[in-house]
Known about the structure:
By secondary structure, this protein is mostly helical. The protein has helices at about 1-5, 10-20, 25-30, 35-65, 90-115, 125-145. Helix 2 (about 10-20) crosses helix 4 and helix 5 packs antiparallel against helix 6.
Amino acid sequence: MFYGYATGTLSSRKIERATYESMPFHFLAGGLPPDHDPIANFRKTFLPALKDLFVPILFYAQELGVLTLGHISLDGTTIHADASKSRAISDKRLLELDSQRRTEVDTLFARTEQAEQTEIPEGLVIADAIAFRHERLVTLAKANAV
């Protein structure tokens, strides 16, 4: 399920289909593709625990080097930057941003539940949205630690 979420495969039916069609899913399923009903029931039963595990899994993947978050500059341009007052964050604002990011993550998980019923809106890539929010949470955690 975590690999499915990270790659944008959210619905239990699509995860089941991916275990037949995609080698990474097939490998993670141990060659025994599950039916979509147990996947959906597992998700409903353990959703709070899954939410708590998702962020540490992203941290672990980043530590292993299989997940990279950030910006890539292809032309080699160096840009001078100074700390600005508009970019400084107070402790109060940091806590507000943290709660906002966690709300956004909850919203993304709610969209996962909707994916069981309907298709995801055009142009929305859940994996990118989760990675973006995760990057924000990591930055906020570092700022909070300082």
